Fold each of these.
Amino acid sequence: MIYFDNAATTKPCSEAVEAVMKGLELFGNPSSLHGMGVEAECLINRARSSIAGSLGAADEEIYFTSCATESSNTAIFGIARTIGKRKKRIVTTSVEHPSVQVCCDELEKQGFEIVRVTPGEDGKISAEDIIAAVNDNTCLVSCMLVNNETGRILPVEKAFRAIKRRFPQTVTHCDCVQGYLKIPVKVKKLYADIISLSGHKIHAPKGIGAMYIKKGVRVPAFMYGGGQEKGFRSGTECVPLICGFGAAAEKYADTIGERFEKAAALRNYLFEKCGENGIHVNSDTECSPYISSIAVDGYKSEVLLHFLEQRGIYVSSGSACSKGKKSSVIREFGIAEKYQDSTLRVSFSEENTAQEIDSLIEALKSARQKLCGTR
Ligand code: PLP
């Protein structure tokens, strides 16, 4: 099997699996006052520290959630319920993941003014456009760090720094799901008040996410009950998954640079091979090396995806969330219409090799010979 769909989800690493098992074995309820409870609480604290350390945050600034979608929903609707009572403008981009886009669509129906900054002709979102969209009436700016369909890196640091200087009361939120532990993410440098993270994109299990909330920033609770997570998110903590997330963060936090280099070398090789074989590349070398968008002109993505799958090669057409629906994000990035329907996303982990890229290219060449194109 050749797995090139790491932006959809990653294989849990052995350290995460072991940590999950430990969390299952030490099954006490972290809220129990006896020793078993304390033991479980210690496991949570260790995971929290690992994630906080990887971001340069304080332990108390990390909250566990069920996934990044929950983190972003909590952030966006929470700020809308507080500062949004007085300030009705939200600035975001037109290329966000649905977990942010759909929240903004909902708030628009409720009377919020949503400003969606679009990429320029060069396919890039400009920091200046984001900054210019913010005014005194803006409660929230939400901008992702790495786009999940093209790998485009957005100028979050530059935009947020200027926004926090001019409008310190405006809350900045960043969906860091595709950037976390792949490119350096430090909370102080990013100027984000709130960050959304997901475990399953970094070799931890599915069903676990986290939120960084800067000390002093008030986000109301999303779930009420027993008061877990300092009253922010009630419900008995999922200790095994939290342990898995913490173990993956611990494993990968110190190797971001070397893994980035390896992914960049693989990505450059992919681009070179695509160039030699007439396969169009939608991304470029300024994008995250972990995610590349390519297109085989004249062949539908879904047909290619299944052709590759029959040969044991797993890629994605657009993002896993779009489930075959035409991606508005690809269109937003200004990718030529003739490539929009033939786009494939190839996303790497550190386990991928150049030989696997050779196999992908050979399979795409064979697809061109064997399949009927659309032209
Ligand atoms: N944000 C981005 C950029 C993503 O790529 C994804 C998942 O594909 C999410 C958010 C949602 O993450 P989760 O599955 O943890 O809800």
Amino acid sequence: MVPLKRRKVPSSASSDSSPDVACKFPQVVLFLLERKMGSSRRTFLTDLCRKKGFRVNETFSESVTHVISEKNKGDDVRRWLRSQGHDLTIAHLVDIGWLTDSLRAGHPVDILEGHKLHTTDYTQSTHKLTSSGGEVTTRSIPAYACQRRTTLSNRNTIFTDALLLLAENAELSGDDGRGLAFRRGAAVLKALPEAVTDMRRLRGCPCLGEHSLRVIQDILETGVSREVESTKQSERYQAMKVLTGIFGVGLKTADQWFRDGIQNIHQLRHSGRTLNRAQQAGLAHYDDLMQPITKAEADVIANIVEEAVQAELPGSQVTLVGGFRRGNPSGHDVDFLITHPQEGREEGVIAKVVSRLEAQDFLLYQKTTRNSYMKSNDGPARPASSMDHFERCLCIFRLTTGEQHEPKACTQAPGEDSEGRASKRAVRVDLVVSPFSQVAFALLGWTGSKLFERELRRWATREKNMSLSSHALYDNKQGRYLKAATEEEIFAHLSLDYIPPSDRNT
Ligand code: CTP
Ligand code: MN
Ligand code: MN
């Protein structure tokens, strides 16, 4: 949030101000740029502002705090100010949207990302010349990933793969900030409707820092990024990727093992390390868990889970969430959200479902965590974190492919391959239980992608002064929780256009 500048304001009403209406906000002095706005609209808006108690100056001077323009690019407004001999740092340059929001609110509102004038205007289509002399149209790219639609069709995988590898490497080195910067850059490229063939296409795009741009330029010029290639070859990157890829192994453990000379699965197996229960399961099923899960396999698991939940708590609602809800054809696990319309009935359902699945011999591993969420009347104490507190179960399923849940028209016995052997595999499954009153938040929080979730929370905090979690939305200004029964209502509370799950693939 940009704080409003406070400056000395002449105590007597300036000759610019309307003499008959009291100025309610003496620390704010507006100047409306006539360029493109036109003089009659400018007069109309000036009168309106003054009626609402805003101070408006007819001419630009040092006392102006906000320069308001309409349909202007930031560059053009700056050039105009400079041509008038003014310093660019003295006032906020804002779009007309800030003024209409302020008039509606009845007071000067905080300057949000969407109110600022950008160097290059990407709120409207602009036209640029390409090297071949043809025109390319650049379109709107808002700064937050949750303001954009990102489908699975990505025209820039050559660049996004590179940036995501560097993100992964940064995170494996404990540098989450840098990782996030690369992820945001990659997300912008994913949202572009066409393949990038020219660096000039990226001018004015948000979230692409110097480093990301250098990587893209390398690839455009030589086909590869040297930095990415050398990262891929790096011993530490390779080892850390393998070790953290084991279910139950986090960054700290992997780092310790690497420093002790363990670089791969084989070395770990023969190292004599004591592994916890999760890590033992992760190692035992390593090859299976590395195999992507297909949508067909996810559907088989969905049938098993649905059957078990309905048997233990009839009337429950089971929803496939995570990547499969976003339309991904494959995933690293299968995520389910469970709730019951009668609040309270959902409590303890996981334990019953797990016992049932265990008796049916479906579970190779499970760890259940109880619900620890406490709603406080004073709102969330800390900024809403990415961790939630639902009752949940991380498990590994034994999936028998070609089994009775998906009958096949062949002579093969269920669960056997063509040579009569059972074809079984291990699959990671997450079960989460939400009270019915929180289910819209849980659904939004567990659908992902992870970056989309982060961006939603960042938007809520920075642009709306709200705290969003997978449990609730708290409005810090009003000092209360905002209710929502659907994802659409949450987007509306956040003043965001609704983005369906298939377009959250940031
Ligand atoms: N999630 C969460 N808390 C966790 C783990 C996951 O809130 N402790 C959320 C993530 O933010 C994400 C969703 O659950 O929105 C799914 O996470 P995950 O299964 O890791 O990723 P997917 O998007 O489903 O991708 P994949 O196909 O790789 O599983
Ligand atoms: Mn998942
Ligand atoms: Mn998951």
